[in-house]
Amino acid sequence: MYKLRMARKLVGIREAAEALGVSAQTLRRWEREGRLFPDERTAGGRRRYDLVRLRPGMFRAGDEAKRRTIAYARVSSHDQKDDLERQKQVLELYCARQGWTFEVIADLGSGMNYHKKGLKRLLDAIIDGQVGRLVLTHKDRLLRFGAELVFAICEAKNVEVVILNQGEDTTFEEDLAKDVVQIITVFSARLYGSRSRKNQKLLDGLKQAVEESERC
């Protein structure tokens, strides 16, 4: 992995003192005490300080401003497309009211699926340092399980996470039922090869129960 090195910005003692909010005399005293040394001296003996090293936050501000706000929306299935549009509208309205420049990434797929194109694009942008803020309508819109891991990555990358609704999602039961069906389907496929009629019958019964509860 390559690390970017910021270009040095060498200034005289007065400008360095002003940047730190102290006097030039204080900088001279800190040098005598071994607390802060100039980065170099000119041929005439004048002190030169690297502002990037003294106050890196001043030079990170421009980079921070370039980081994007991304709003992420997701539903589990095609029959929830109307809900997906509502999510996107809520996210767009909220971000616009905050005055943020933003992008909406939308996914159609189970909260158990970690290979959705939109989610992958979002994670790649976060890890690459391109994202400064992530906005969600509900936590479960990101992932059913594992959202906390993504939030930990956001924290490590200094990404602000904004969740508009902390309560239960209105589509929670419907989505959960679809996710359970997906889990059962995966296990059914794995157990099918074993030709265990008992296991297959059990899984078929569970799947049927979930589908019936979903219809109710």
TrEMBL record:
Residues 68-213 form the Resolvase/invertase-type recombinase catalytic domain. The keyword DNA-binding applies. One of its GO terms (molecular function) is DNA binding. It comes from Methylacidimicrobium cyclopophantes. Keywords: DNA integration, DNA recombination, DNA-binding. CDD domains: HTH_MerR-SF, SR_IS607_transposase_like. Gene3D superfamilies: 1.10.1660.10, 1.10.287.2170, Resolvase, N-terminal catalytic domain (3.40.50.1390). PROSITE patterns: HTH_MERR_2, RECOMBINASES_1, RECOMBINASES_3. This is Uncharacterized protein. Pfam families: MerR (PF00376), Resolvase (PF00239). The active site is at S76. It comes from the Bacteria. One of its GO terms (biological process) is regulation of DNA-templated transcription. Residues 13-50 form the HTH merR-type domain. InterPro entries: DNA-bd_dom_put_sf, IS607_transposase-like, MerR-type_HTH_dom, Recombinase/Transposase-rel, Recombinase_CS, Resolv_N, Resolvase-like_N_sf, Transpos_IS607.
